[in-house]
Specification:
434 Repressor (Amino-terminal Domain); flat
Length: about 450
């Protein structure tokens, strides 16, 4: 995420490195580099002017500390300016009597339907007002039958309530969805509206009618985060007809320029609430300005990293594995496979490295050595073993390893590496025996 803009800003800010003190001329020259970097990242001009104005004011004023490396000081100033540009963290507000209505809108292909499924899962996984939410998904896209079918499949996948109607009239479907949500006791009703390839009067009139009818608690614009300034223009057009309460930026996992993310909050005044980070239903997170600013500047996002690890390590399997580690029991190949599965749930190695502080320059090198394909190969190796071999890896002689390698489509060396990894994991488990973990933690403290 943000590889392009991170690289550009990194080069621009390196202009300040090695200088004893920042003069006004130094700042102006550096700001020209920053301006070019932001323009190349497709950041809207008003947002660029605002950000550079903040940086200049603080860089040539009292904010520059004597004795502090100017390059480091500029990073801090730019970080603070990015936070002001992105706005404060805003949470999704759901108040009043059930069912609370969330209206999703946006252009065709922006990811509304997938976002509806992700949002439903997030709402059901997140305890609002101290309890789990019941969510209904309803499609108002009468122009694309495939969209209605897709939303029904997503509802089934995430365990949300589905909605069916034979009507091809949007107002009729909206009224029926409201009645069904109330009858079935849904806490939240998510309405997925139709999109168009371009903003047009017909789309806006229909959306305004649905908004007036449904009286939603939240109206969220779902926009493709990779399209740059055009996403800002789309947001302005929608906000002019219906009062948007939040933005969801999708496809934020791609190699994008980052212009939309930095521009939309400042120009529209509408807060970014969520980020879509891929096709998987779990690839969805609450927007945090501090996290985005940190990623843009290559500083990572520790909070998001911890949240991902916590989410991925929940469940009975993780509890059993933790108990094995703490008690010093020997771990088998099934335990190793569970660890690989957890890595996949975390979004793969590239996604993890993106969140780790200070890994920006090393990310490509490390991800190349421990990539997601390697994890898939290791899982395939374990799957090619017999149940007895998984439970007792010590019986894996040369003949067995050759058979496993052929079955998994890998080399014997790959099988040997996995066995070595298993041995190292058990060596760690032995260290836990007799309170070894507690002793280690005590030394660290």
């Amino acid at each position: 995420m943000f590889e392009f803009i991170s690289e550009k800003l990194g080069k621009a800010m390196s202009f300040f490195s090695g200088k004893g003190l920042l003069t006004e001329a130094d700042v102006d020259a550096g700001l020209r580099e920053l301006r070019m970097s932001l323009l190349e990242a497709d950041v809207a001009l008003p947002a660029i002017k605002h950000l550079l104005g903040i940086v200049r004011e603080r860089a040539v004023g009292e904010a520059v500390l004597k004795g502090v490396n100017p390059g480091q000081q500029i990073v801090k100033i730019v970080y603070d300016a990015l936070l002001e540009l992105l706005g404060s963290e805003t949470k999704l507000e759901l108040k009043g009597a059930a069912p609370q209505v969330i209206l999703l809108c946006g252009l065709q292909g922006g990811g509304k339907t997938t976002t509806a499924g992700k949002l439903a899962k997030w709402l059901m996984d997140t305890r609002i007002h101290g309890r789990k939410q019941t969510v209904m998904l309803a499609s108002l896209d009468v122009y694309r039958p495939a969209a209605i079918e897709q939303l029904g499949i997503l509802a089934e996948k995430v365990g949300a309530l589905g909605f069916e109607s034979d009507s091809d009239k949007v107002p009729v479907r909206a009224k029926a969805a409201l009645a069904a949500a109330k009858k079935q006791g849904a806490d939240v009703l998510i309405l997925d509206t139709a999109g168009r390839t371009v903003v047009d009067a017909e789309l806006m009139d229909e959306l305004a009618d649905v908004h007036a009818l449904a009286k939603p608690s939240a109206t969220l614009l779902v926009a493709d985060g990779q399209v740059g300034q055009s996403a800002v223009e789309v947001a302005q057009a929608f906000h002019a007809r219906v009062p948007l309460t939040g933005l969801v930026l999708t496809r934020m996992d791609g190699d994008m320029r980052g212009g939309a993310a930095l521009s939309m909050r400042h120009i529209t005044g509408v807060p970014i609430l969520f980020l879509g980070l891929g096709e998987k239903l779990e690839a969805f997170e609450v927007f945090r300005p501090e996290g985005m600013a940190g990623r843009i500047l290559g500083q990572g996002d520790v909070v998001a990293l911890v949240q991902k690890v916590q989410a991925a390590t929940q469940g009975e399997d993780s509890a059993k594995l933790e108990q094995k580690l703490l008690s010093g029991q020997a771990l088998d190949m099934n335990d190793l496979k569970k660890q690989f599965a957890m890595m996949k749930r975390l979004g793969g190695m590239a996604g993890l490295l993106d969140l780790m502080p200070g890994m920006g320059s090393m990310k490509d090198k490390i991800a190349g050595q421990v990539d997601d394909k390697m994890i898939a190969r290791q899982i395939a190796v374990v799957d090619s073993m017999t149940p007895e071999e998984r439970r007792k890896p010590m019986i894996l002689n040369g003949k067995r390893r050759l058979r496993i390698a052929k079955g998994a489509g890998v080399t014997v060396q790959d099988v040997n590496k996995l066995v070595k990894m298993h041995e190292q994991m058990n060596q760690m488990a032995k260290m836990m025996r007799g309170g070894g973990l507690q002793k280690l933690l005590g030394r660290m403290r």
